[in-house]
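pipeline stage [seq->struct] | target=DUF5675 domain-containing protein | organism=Cyclobacterium marinum | residues=267
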Amino acid sequence: MNRLPGLLVLAGVILLVLFFYSNPEVLDKIWLWLVGFIGYLIVLLGKGYEKIKGLFIENNPAPNPTTPKENINHKIKHLKETQASDLESIKSLIENEDVATIPEALITILRYLDDGNTTLGLMFIQKKFFAYTLEDTHRDEKVPGGTRIPEGHYKLGINENLSPLTQRYRNRFPWFSHHIEIKEIPNYDKVYVHIGNSHRDTEGCILIADGVNAASTEKMILQSQKAYERFYKMVLPKINQNEPLTINILNENWFEILTKKQQLVNA
């Protein structure tokens, strides 16, 4: 049945040739139309030729090459495996009590990737891995609502203002009262730790989550609400008890800096 269309096309072409050969005056009247239709005829002839060739030549299926999608999936899998190994090494390093060169603070965030839109990081609380973080990208000149805060050592506190975002959180979560704010950042204010999944949700703040998808085109974090609730319930009581809480934020070159400092300490 698959060969029938090819035979019909060939028969039609032969009939047309015989018709125009025996009636040349018709050809004079429609030659312009034929010129415009020549591309379509070529396609039909090509298909007909392939069908006819199939009558006499046994088709040997070519080996199925690896598709671009399979190549991409393989690369993503490799990236995830490599990244997972690197992150585990980072966690192990920070949780090691021998690393004593990070300033004393309740929370430490280590940035490890910036793709020009999004910064990914790791949050440690009391030197124990706690969550993944996501921020806006670094910019030499601040773009309001689209630039991560500078690295540094900052205080943590409560923002008492009832902003629209704070009100939305109050409506959603019975355990929420006010946002936890990173304070005294030069040229920044109202920088919170809160819920979100991509750089579109940050506006300069720090998002936290229990999972990360760093291999996707748009970097994202996953299960943010669970991580935030855990963070909030751990940190808010300390703030309410007037404990002096601080946060360290280190840029992507933190490993080189810590290694050099550790070498100086051990010298």
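stage status: PASS
auto-comment: The chain is about 45% helix and 20% strand. Confidence is low (pLDDT under 50) at residues 55-80.
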